[in-house]
Amino acid sequence: MPVLWLFLIIVALSAFGFIAGRARAYQSAGGDVRNLHSLPGYYGYNVALTALVPALAVLAVWLLAQPMLIENSVSKMIPDEIIAEGSNRSLVMSDVRRVANGLDLAVSSGAMTNDEVNALSTDTSDIRATLGSIGVALGSDVSPEVLAAAQSYRSKSYTGTLVMTVVVLLLAIGGLALAYTRTHKDFRARNVVERGVLGLLIIAASLAILTTIGIVLSMLFETMNFFRLHPWTDFFFGGTWSPNFRGDSDLSILPLLWGTLYISFIALLVAVPIGLFAAIYLSEYASNAVRSIAKPLLEILAGIPTIVYGLFALLTVGPMLVNVFGRGDQGLLGVEWMSGATSVLTAGVVMGIMLIPFVSSLSDDIINSVPQAMRDGSLGLGATKSETVRQVIMPAALPGIVGAILLAASRAIGETMIVVMGAGAIAKFSLNPLESMTTITTRIVSQLTGDTDFASPETLVAFALGLTLFVLTLGLNILALYIVRKYREQYE
Amino acid sequence: MTDLTNSPAAGVPRPKHGTLLTQDARTAKRNAAEKRFQMYGMIAIGIGLLMLLVLVFTIVRNGAGAFQQTFITLDVQLLEDKLDKNGNRDIEEISKVSTFGYSPLISQALEDKIASANVQTELSGKQLGDILSKSAAATLRDFVLQNPELIGTSVSFEFLASSRVDGYLKGRVTRDSIANDKNISVEQLDVVDQLVESGSIKKTFNLSFITGADASDQRPESAGIGVAMVGSLFMMLVVLALALPIGVAASIYLEEFAPKNWITDIIEVNISNLAAVPSIVFGILGLAVFINYMHLPMSAPLVGGLVLTLMTLPTIIISTRASLKAVPPSIRDAALGVGASKMQSVFHHVLPLAAPGILTGTIIGLAQALGETAPLLLIGMVGFIASNAPDSVASGLLSPNSAMPAQIYEWAKRADPAFYERAWGGIIILLLFLITMNTVAVILRRRFERRW
Amino acid sequence: MNQMTSVEKNVNTQDIKISASGVQVYYGDTHAIKDVDVEIEDKTVTAFIGPSGCGKSTFLRCLNRMNDTIDVCRVEGTILLDNEDIYDRKVDPVQLRAKVGMVFQKPNPFPKSIYDNVAYGPRIHGLFKNKADLDNIVESALRRAAIWNEVKDRLNAPGTGLSGGQQQRLCIARAVATEPEVLLMDEPCSALDPIATAQVEELIDELRTNYSVVIVTHSMQQAARVSQKTAFFHLGNLVEFGETGQIFTNPEDPRTESYITGRIG
Fold first, then answer.
1. Please, what are the domains in chain B?
2. Is A186 strand, coil or helix?
3. A287 phi/psi in degrees, rounded to 5
4. pLDDT at C10 over 50
5. pTM summary value
6. Subunit contact C81:B19, Cβ cutoff 8 A
7. A touches which chains (3+ CB pairs under 8 A)?
8. Do residue C104 and residue A379 have CB atoms under 8 angstroms apart?
9. Is the pLDDT of residue B61 over 50?
10. Which of 190-219 (C) contact B at CB < 8 A?
11. Residue-range definition of the domain harbouring residue A483
12. Which of A253, A470, B320, B442 is most buried (CB neighbours < 10 A)?
């Protein structure tokens, strides 16, 4: 892996720069550290960072940009005629990449030499068979255009990587040389290094913004592609979800949204009363000993990975509910209301258990931030504790608790594993909690796992679903955080 | 003070209160309501704790079986004329004998064993062979290829029993439940019973579950979680190597250097919101950016690690900022007062003092990443990985691998209930890791917690 | 104010409302109140004075068992209210607090409307027959707290929106609305400006016609202005208890004298 080697070389250069820079500074001060403007280490850091940072930055940008540029230029080589009916340019491009990778493999495994590959032509040899013999399976015969594109792809990648290596190494060496020559006892090394470090810190802090932008852009572009292939009216206002990989699917979000909201509603129905009462008990009634044991134990529930809850739903809660509500005469109630283990109730109840500590610790914080003076005032008037809680603390804490519930709702809507394993896969509008229903997150997983073809609306719809989910949960979060913050300010 | 002049206060009659020593009816009613209310709280706590108990109980009861496995001990004659016709012990020639060449040897050994144990049965050799795992021949072949000098001798060998036999010994499979099962019959179970009595079949500790690789649909008995553990380890290394430095750097900037302006505000709001973005959205991001756009390989721990890094970064930043904030300003002032630069005061004094808190937050973030499944499904880390431990460790960050939670999900999806036991067993291992990490975090916090 | 309060200082011999004897209070291992005996008369303002941390607030909170809400606090000795031991096992603190109301150091109106703040006590204790009755109770309580004219047009506005002095008088109205027999006030003016303080002090004097008022204050001038009886606490001990005029002009104990003349505190 040449990039790794390149990286190691730069790091080695930079380490060398540190030692050299420090030594030079030492020397320029005539061996007396007191003559230096900064501590000798700073001169070393200066040289090391000047060698390392620009080179690494260029390397990273180059690695990101090169595939895109090459893809664009190679894609122009493919004439529209050879794009088969029902296929599209990006499918052909993935063929091109596969052939190019196959040829790379052929060279590296010694089956062909580089010249042979460049001279290759569809007239003289069967490329599919050649590549098949070294383990690269192609779906169809290689057309001359695709081969030409693949050869160009290879050569451009090769040239690109070569130029990148040269540029990056030159930058590293240049930086090292420049910083080394500037190293002198009067050089303000500490100030320069500190400014550089501050710059790095700023970059790290803005990564959070970059991530958000990345999330939004990646989903936005694919969503736009989706709406080019599929009418947006169907997505937002249609009533059916039935993806069909031969095309012509109904892809409406509404049944999925219904399932999502229904399951979240049941989850909150479980989590909010239990979590709220637990919080009230812990903050108003429990002795210190009880609190110090019960609170961490409850919070364990929040630390358990969702896959565990998913398995619990699928293999324990689901079958248990079937025993109660299903199986006809053999069941507990003797009814036949539930046929499979996956249902809205299964997923909702298990998700509710997961959310109990979430609701309880948030509410606990909020109830505790109600000033003690409120409690004293109420108790001093002869109110009982429960009257105090219901009539003074709850109204005072209400905004905060609403915020906590909204945060829990956003968790429930975005939760994936529990619904993937516990809710089922049938998209429909139904009020029966014992039926299987499906959610936005489940469909994202099912549309994006296995063979994904980024040219079909059935795959791309997942991005539209993801964007909707992101907007939905983000909106809830912002609202909730705003409410909670307003609430906190009230008592600070 | 106009109020006072026309206040009716002076004329208000003296209120009447009864004795304190008897409770009036209203107070009794209110106290009953108070008791009820308190009871609701206790019930809520009780339900929460009960659920925890049920969860732990279910996991342990269903998963403990995965750590035991049924083996059959057979004395196999490694016949020279079958395995090495020329007798020159050339490893090339021996390896030409496929697993089909080993099957008769095992069948013979099984028949010998049954005869020596005085078991009466009318089953054919083929049917008897079904008691063993389908991997038996391959296991024996691997063993012979490593020890060619043993050809011609008789070797006592422990073979995996088939998953049905294993389930029968563990109580998962009963004589009633196999009525429609093509894989095992009541007659075969009779034989198994007698072999158990003679001591040839027994359950022992199942090390290969902890170290081994996943196995195909047909052989739940040989599936292990070891390779997925390595995959998880790689991802955690990537997360640690990226999330810790970036998270600490971002926190230092935001907490110590950032001016109070709208850009900083946006970054802060952004981070607190990113912490609550559903994990699957990070999976979509990973799929779109790292795989579709940057063409990094599917299923690679590097990609998984990158996605989890983005996911854990907000958690680490939030906890790091909290521990930086906990260092009192007097420390900074003291450093600045002796002429240190702002940067020096932060890196020489504040950061070391905040280190335990940062470490605790990082461990908790890592634990969260370790248990995360959803984004891994999207970047394809659920593939069936057959390569065993030494190969998979060597193959590194870019070759396909799985992760513990994804492997558990994969098992839970399979049709054979024998895999469910593996899934629960996998959860036990996953939870052991998480408990360890969280305990370390708690100990660190206790140990270094400082009251200023 | 002074000319007004000085006129009032003709204390009649009154019934004993609260009688405490041998009261000890412990906070965990700390002995906060040491063997205090005190008798509080009806229709009298009794002031507790003393340096910070002397236990005067703690002792006040014993009188309506507010210390019960603090886990580590333990009270010994007897406190009789109308000759009934308020620490008797059969006594419900809820009933006791209806009889012994309390106003706190910081104004603490509930986050409700002014009306609901005052109606809170009557509602929980069931002291009214119908809505009109409750309206009357609220009005008369607000009048007695001398705040009616300021708030009568905005009874539905939140109580937290009032100024500090108004909030404190609202809290007094809230306490008065429950028809208590004793009103405990824990430094009710410490968070108020001088004008608001004057209003509240005037109110306290007015309240004396109906209630036995016990006020904790760190201001000796305030004690001199509003009270008829004064108790001086020091380091958990009740040093001196007597007529206010006598305590301030002719204290018996040298510690009282030191405190009043400003040498300790």
1. 68-205 (no CATH), 226-448 (1.10.3720.10)
2. coil
3. -75, 165
4. no
5. 0.84
6. no
7. B, C
8. no
9. yes
10. 199, 202-203, 206-207, 209-210
11. 241-490
12. B320
